[in-house]
Amino acid sequence: MKLTPGKKEEVPNKLYDAPFKVIIFSELGRHKTAFTERYLINVSDSEMSIGVKLWIKNLVVGRYRITLNIFDLGSEARFRLLIPSYVHGANGVLFLYDVNRESTLLNINEWLQIIGKISPVVVVGIIFGPERKRQVDFEEGNKIAESRGMDGFLECNVQTGENVDKVFDTLARLMLKEQSGIVSLKELFNST
Question: Is the preceding peptide bond at 5 cis, omega within 30 degrees of 0?
Answer without folding.
Answer: no
